[in-house]
Design goal:
Elements (H helix, E strand, L loop, with lengths): L2 H4 L13 E4 L2 H4 L5 E4 L2 H14 L9 H17 L19 H9 L5 H11 L5 E4 L4 H8 L8 E3 L8 H12 L5 E6 H6 L3 H7 L5 E6 L4 H9 L10 E3 L4 E5 L5 H7 L2 E5 L2 H11 L6 E6 L24 H16 L4
Parallel strand pairs: 1-2, 3-4, 3-5, 5-6, 6-10, 9-10
Antiparallel strand pairs: 7-8
Helix pairs in contact: 6-13
Length: 337
């Protein structure tokens, strides 16, 4: 019943939809006016299954679930195959500064997109490997596109989108499971915020894999700005004119940071380079850092969903006032409980 999975309670608008909730917290079990069972999830599911079998229960579903899964598998194939073809490339996210994508391409000559990078990583991982992420667009993106092989193989901080959690988590996961490969996905902004545990990783001689998704800024927050009438303000890494960052994009080579600590580093600007780097990294005995130059605005979009984001209700800007009214309208449509 989280904000992500329910689109801020807006997704389930049919008043005839009922929920069954299993939770070890009575307080949380009440959410969505659910028919609730308070207890351990595994034990409760087993008990319910036994009761339903005794009553001869049969699901009303026929092919709906299989059809939906097949449709989504086809979409995952599409997302994994998206590559940037040049300065005139049209990314998934439409709301953007028109300078950004062509400028980024001229800066790095990269064809790598975020969805293709995630698909490549998933294809190269083993069944016992662990993936880690936290802040920015990566948690919502991976919630859509990731497939997990084992319990504990998907380590994602969802509570407060804690940017910077990722590097420290890579060390913790590796200490907890030293015999498996872990792959940490972190945006360039989160990496800049908190990467000090790289020193501890090297000190402890832990072989972690840090993938920095560099799109020259705070991509998720830029999306929120652009879709809430604000425009692109200080969420892209641009040179300043002394008052605000409105100049060219600021290039950064994150491999140099890894090299300074003695890590094995890779610069990846295509699916092929990323795949080769991931294969080579499995042969390494020291921590690895991957600098992925991912084209801005190539994360997954909302697929028609909505997210309740707090914003100014009073403004001189007409675009902000329009966005605020849309927020109020959508809140009114959200399911009450």
């Amino acid at each position: 019943m989280s904000d992500f999975t329910t689109s801020s309670k807006w997704l389930f608008q049919n008043e005839n939809v009922r929920f069954v909730s299993i939770n070890n917290s009575r307080y949380h079990a009440y959410k969505f006016d659910a028919v609730k069972a308070v207890g351990d999830a595994k034990v409760t599911v087993a008990a319910l299954a036994e009761i339903l079998r005794a009553k001869g229960y049969k699901s009303a579903y026929t092919n709906e679930i299989a059809d939906a899964k097949a449709e989504w598998d086809a979409e995952l194939e599409r997302l994994g195959g998206i590559v940037c073809t040049g300065e005139d490339f049209e990314p998934i996210i439409k709301a953007r500064d028109p300078r950004t994508v062509p400028e980024f391409y001229r800066l790095y000559g990269t064809s790598l997109t975020q969805t293709a990078a995630l698909a490549t990583l998933r294809a190269c991982m083993g069944p016992d490997d662990i993936v880690i992420t936290a802040g920015g667009s990566l948690p919502s993106c991976m919630q859509r596109v990731w497939k997990t092989d084992k319990r504990g193989g998907y380590h994602v901080e969802y509570g407060y989108s804690c940017m910077g959690y990722e590097v420290g988590a890579s060390l913790g996961v590796k200490m907890a499971e030293p015999d498996v490969e872990e792959y940490t996905c972190i945006g360039d902004s989160g990496f800049q915020m908190l990467n000090s545990e790289l020193g501890t990783i090297m000190q402890e001689k832990r072989k972690t894999n840090i993938l920095v998704f560099d799109n020259c800024g705070f991509g998720c927050i830029n999306n929120l700005e652009m879709t809430h009438g604000i425009g692109s303000i200080a969420t892209e890494f641009r040179y300043t004119d002394g008052k605000k960052p409105c100049g060219d994009l600021v290039p950064t080579d994150y491999t140099k940071i890894g090299e300074a600590y003695g890590m094995k580093t890779y610069s990846c600007k295509s699916v092929e380079e990323l795949r080769d780097a991931l294969i080579d990294s499995r042969k390494q005995t020291v921590a690895c850092l991957f600098d992925l130059k991912v084209v801005p605005k190539t994360m997954t979009d909302g697929y028609g969903s909505w997210w309740n984001v707090g914003m100014a209700m009073v403004s001189d800007s007409e675009s902000v006032r329009d966005a605020a009214q849309e927020v109020l309208d959508r809140r009114a449509e959200a399911r009450k409980y």
